[in-house]
From TrEMBL:
Name of protein: Uncharacterized protein
Species: Micromonospora phaseoli
Length: 86
């Protein structure tokens, strides 16, 4: 694989990561909407199932945030490597 091929592959990967980021951002927006409804519905409920639902929502939101950070780091690293290649 030539340097040009590597740079092209890194460019394609960056575009694919952008698509993934857009998808995950959409998931995050939907999750925010749903979590607001669920948390409002579960307000004052102390049943075990309600606590599990609250934890699951919190965990899902955290995973979306972590995924977006991972995508950003991958793009930053890929772009830095592409610049090193010239």
């Amino acid at each position: 694989m030539s340097i040009s091929d590597v740079k092209a592959a890194l460019g394609e990967a960056d575009q694919l990561l952008d698509q993934g980021k857009t998808t995950i951002e959409g998931v995050g927006a939907a999750l925010d909407e749903v979590s607001g409804l669920v948390l409002a519905t579960l307000h004052d409920t102390r049943r075990a199932e309600a606590e599990q639902a609250r934890k699951a929502i919190t965990d899902a939101i955290r995973e979306v945030e972590l995924t977006l950070r991972t995508i950003a780091a991958a793009q930053d690293n890929g772009n830095a490597y592409r610049q090193v290649l010239g």
